[in-house]
Amino acid sequence: MPDTIPTPAPPMGRRERKKAATRQAIADAALHLFLERGYDDVGIREIADAADVSTTTLFKHFPVKEALVFDEDADQEARLLAAVRERPEGQSIPAALREHALQYRMAAASGDARFTAFFDLINRTPALRDYVQAMWMRHTAALAAVIAEDCGLPADDSACTALAHFALEAPRAARGHEDPHQAVTRAFELLENGWVAVGG
Questions:
Q1: pLDDT by residue (tens digit) across 52-96?
Q2: What 3 state SS string does 116-134 have?
Q3: Residues 95 and 164 in one domain
Q4: Residue at 9 is within a domain
Q5: DSSP label of 109
Q6: Residue 41: which CATH number?
Q7: How far apart are alpha carbons 65 and 59 in whole angstroms?
């Protein structure tokens, strides 16, 4: 039994609910148009019109066009850090991060039409491919700090930063590969072998 009981998050007020609903409406409208016509052929004003908001309101929620496709950056980071903190006993950090990375590959290969369409949109749009990679790499510092904490090492330990960086970079090895699962696995095998010498 835990020592403390988590306090439930307070319910959102009317203003927060309205703001969240507007943000979701914009993201939904954008994704629908992107999937229907292609990312490059859809303009910001069209998205705003489809969501029944002004372009000013749209940019308050999404500072750049690419962000319209990726609306879970904070959630993604939380799941990434949880992969390290909540991994099974005896599992190494590289192995936990490998499993986390492979979850996205499994989603892409699941046969679900929504996932397939979403990943196809990203893969055929250079701007989105570059943005999603940059988005992942923004989590390097947070991931490195969690790795260092887990290992009892200084927060600025260079090996922890390197592992975080390369773990986030590794899924790129699967891009265009005939066997993405194997490509990701082999990249993490390299990290695993290197980490054994550093982290034990």
A1: 999 999 999 999 999 898 866 678 889 999 999 999 999 999 999
A2: HHHHHHHHCCHHHHHHHHH
A3: yes
A4: no
A5: T
A6: 1.10.10.60
A7: 9
Indicate whether 3 belongs to any domain. Answer: no
Reported as a single tens digit per residue, the pLDDT across 4-34 is 344 445 566 888 889 989 999 999 999 999 9
133 class by beta-carbon count within 10 Å (0-12 exposed, 13-18 middle, 19+ buried)? middle
What is the C-alpha R_g of the chain? 19
Residue 106: its pLDDT value, please? Answer: 64
Of 52, 68, 84, which one is at a domain's C-terminal end? 68
Alpha carbons 135 and 130: distance in angstroms, whole number? 9
Residue 152: C-alpha distances to residues 55, 77, 92, 148 (Å): 48, 21, 14, 6
Please state whether 7 falls in left (phi above 0), alpha (psi between -120 and 50) or beta. Answer: beta
The pLDDT, as a whole number, for residue 111 is 60
Q: In 14-72, where does DSSP find H-type helix?
A: 14-37, 44-51, 55-61
* 1 inside domain: no
Whole-number pLDDT of residue 118: 84
Residue 177: per-residue pLDDT: 78
Q: Both 62 and 129 in a single domain?
A: no
Q: Is 58 exposed, middle or buried (0-12, 13-18, 19+ CB in 10 A)?
A: buried
